[in-house]
Automatic annotation (TrEMBL):
Its EC number is 2.6.1.9. The modification N6-(pyridoxal phosphate)lysine is found at K226. GO terms for molecular function: histidinol-phosphate transaminase activity; pyridoxal phosphate binding. This is Histidinol-phosphate aminotransferase. Pathway: Amino-acid biosynthesis; L-histidine biosynthesis; L-histidine from 5-phospho-alpha-D-ribose 1-diphosphate: step 7/9.
Length: 369
């Protein structure tokens, strides 16, 4: 402290330095690109060639500001999903959408609930906005609606639900999502993060459009980072009540979506055949890979996403960390999930057939050795 009582250097806001750094999926092995990167749930199919062409066409006009309202992109999202564009907001990845929601609704000390193995971005976004993250226990690595409802207090302002969840791959049926919504006070915002919804085939699943369309406190978020294969461009969106979208738009950075991302997003939406191919591939290789790993004696959490959570035995030499190290010597990178409280599991993205077969083969060798 100086004589004026002020600190000698700038001080980040109270509590900010307590926020853990987000650890992304590993992208390199000893400084080189892995043969099979299965650590971030990226699409093994890359992006649609139409999206790539649209991206390239932007190179002639890099001096121009993009459309700040992402008008065409919102219109095309609206066409594809049957939604009114006025009720859509685009973000630099759904990460930005989640942050904007927190900054819109949380005052210092307000509580926001998420589930035990919920997506790691939630507590970061909540704390960045001054909120207090509250964890609701899960049952069998699956969201427990009763636990969330039991965690609601007078201070609760938001609930985050990834459905399906990352890193577990589990989901809850729409009846449970409705029960959750019905049990929440009307002033609490329910965020339905449907980042993997395109992959889900279950009849009792819904991404959340109907609830977001018909209530005043439900927002559904979506991303172009997964099945659309556009993670590098940072593009996501949400759909919700007009009053919520209007409020968010007041603090949204005015040009938050680059022109290239808008153009590529529009083209990608118009190439739904490309998306279907990725989904069909996942429907084949998700169960195939899960069954093959179970046949090796590993436990795999049933997943409806484009990734699986693999649990390793407690036996010495067979831990998740050791499996990870072994796989890396073979050029395969999966995701460690110790940060999620799952120290003896690895999350594996469903990659190409070749990638899945490679991991299955290497893990067979690892478990034998
Ligand atoms: C990958 C993922 C997202 C997408 O994040 P972006 O910022 O759009 O790349 C959102 N939610 C969950 C649960 C995810 O796993």
């Amino acid at each position: 402290m100086s004589s004026s009582g002020q600190p000698q250097r700038p001080q980040p806001r109270e509590g900010l330095l307590d926020i853990p750094l987000y650890v992304p999926g590993k992208a390199e092995i000893d400084g080189a690109a892995p043969i099979h990167k299965l650590s971030s749930n990226e699409s093994p199919f890359g992006a649609s060639s139409m999206a790539m062409d649209a991206f390239r066409q932007m190179t002639g006009n890099l001096e121009l500001y993009p459309d700040g309202g992402s008008v065409v992109l919102r219109e095309v999202i609206g066409e594809v999903h049957g939604l009114h564009p006025d009720r859509i907001l685009c973000g630099a990845g759904s990460d930005e959408v989640l942050s904007l929601l927190c900054y819109t609704f949380l005052e210092r000390g307000d509580e926001a609930i998420y589930s035990q193995y919920g997506f790691a971005v939630y507590p970061i976004a909540i704390q960045a906005a001054g909120g207090v993250p509250v964890v609701a226990k899960e049952q069998d690595l699956t969201t427990d609606v009763d636990a969330i409802l039991a965690a609601v207090t007078d201070k609760t302002k938001m609930v985050f639900l990834a459905n399906p969840n990352n890193p577990t791959g589990t989901y809850i049926p729409v009846s449970e999502v409705r029960r959750l919504h019905a049990g929440l006070p009307k002033h609490v915002v329910l965020v339905l993060d449907a980042a993997y919804s395109e992959y889900v085939a279950e009849n009792d699943y819904e991404a959340g459009i109907e609830l977001a369309a018909t209530t005043e406190n439900v927002v559904m978020s979506r991303t172009f980072s997964k099945v659309y294969g556009l993670a590098a461009l940072r593009l996501g969106w949400c759909y919700g009540p007009q009053a919520i979208i209007d409020a968010m738009n007041r603090i949204r950075p005015p040009f938050n979506i680059s022109g290239a991302a808008q153009a590529a997003g529009v083209a990608a939406l118009r190439d739904q055949d490309f998306i279907r191919k990725a989904v069909v591939h996942n429907r084949e290789w998700l169960p195939k890979t899960s069954a093959a790993l179970e046949a090796l004696g590993l436990k795999v959490t049933p997943s409806v996403g484009n990734f699986i959570l693999i649990h390793f035995p407690d036996a010495p030499g067979k831990s998740a960390a050791e499996a990870d190290a072994f796989l890396q010597t073979k050029g395969c990178v999966l995701r460690q999930v110790g940060g999620y409280g799952l120290p003896n599991a690895l999350r594996m993205t469903i990659g190409t057939a070749e990638a899945c077969e490679a991991v299955i083969g290497h893990l067979a060798e690892f478990l034998k050795g």
